[in-house]
C-alpha cells in the first residue's frame, strides 16, 4: 500500500476498491473495520515517515547553516589574533613613548628593583646615565642587574654589607650558588674600591661605643649633634643588654655542639 501511495493512487480510489472488495467477499463489518484500520495504519505511517524526513532535512539544513559561518570564523581567527597582537604592540609602544617623554623632564626617578625590572623598556627609552641603589647590601644581585639598561654609565651602591643580607626564597639554592650574597658585598670582598662614612649623625653614642666600634667600624666618629641627645625620661641609661637571653643563647649553642652539630651547620 505504501508503494501505491507513493505512485500517486488517491485516497478515495483506494478506499473505494477496498469497500468493493469487502462487499464482493461478503466480509463482516468487523473484518471491514479491520481493513479500514489497515488503511489508517498505512496513512499514519506515511505521515510519520514524512515527519521523520522533514526532521532529518531540518537537521541537515541547520547543521549546514551553523557550520558554514563557524568554518569561516575559524579560518579568519588566526589573522584576527595577529591583527590584535599588532594593535596591542602599537598601543604599548605609544604609551611607552608618552611616559618616557614625561619622565625625561624629571631630575630623579624613584622605583623599586621589581618595578625597574618590570619597566625596563621604559627605562631604556629614558636613557638614564646614573643609577643609585639604596640598601644595596640587602638586594639580590639579579635585581640590580635587571635595573641596568645600556645607557647607564655610573652605578652607585649604598648599604652596609656587614649587616643584613638578601633573602632568597629557596634556601638550598641560596646556599649552593651564594644567592644571598649581594653585588655590593661581592665587590667589596673582592677588593673593589669603596668608600666608608667616617661620621655618623643618627645613633646614640652609647650604641656606637658598645656595638658599632668594637665589632664593625672601629674608626666611626660620632657627630657633635648626637652628643646632645637627652636621656630617656625614667631610664637609668640609654643602652641595655638582656643578659638572661644572652646566657640562654650561649647554653643553647653549647648543647647543640655537644650533640655533634658543627658551627658551620
Please estimate the helix content: 55-70%
Radius of gyration: 47 Å
CATH-scheme architecture of the largest domain:
3-Layer(aba) Sandwich
The best one-word shape is elongated
Mean pLDDT across residues: 79
Number of distinct beta strands: 4
Please give the structural blueprint.
Elements: H1 2-6, H2 11-24, H3 29-103, H4 113-118, H5 120-126, E1 130-133, H6 141-146, E2 154-157, H7 171-177, H8 183-189, E3 199-200, H9 205-215, E4 221-222, H10 243-258
Parallel strand pairs: 1-2, 3-4
Helix pairs in contact: 2-3, 3-5
Concise structural overview:
The chain has 265 residues and is mainly alpha-helical.
Give a description of the structure:
With 265 residues, this protein is mainly alpha-helical. It has three domains: 2-75; 106-195, P-loop containing nucleotide triphosphate hydrolases (Rossmann fold, 3-Layer(aba) Sandwich), CATH 3.40.50; 196-265, no CATH class. 58% of the residues lie in helices and 5% in strands. The chain contains ten helices and four strands. It has helices spanning 2-6, 11-24, 29-103, 113-118, 120-126, 141-146, 171-177, 183-189, 205-215, 243-258; strands at residues 130-133, 154-157, 199-200, 221-222. Strands 1-2 form a two-stranded parallel sheet. Strands 3-4 form a two-stranded parallel sheet. β3, α9 (205-215) and β4 form a beta-alpha-beta unit. α3 (29-103) runs parallel beside α5 (120-126). The chain is elongated.
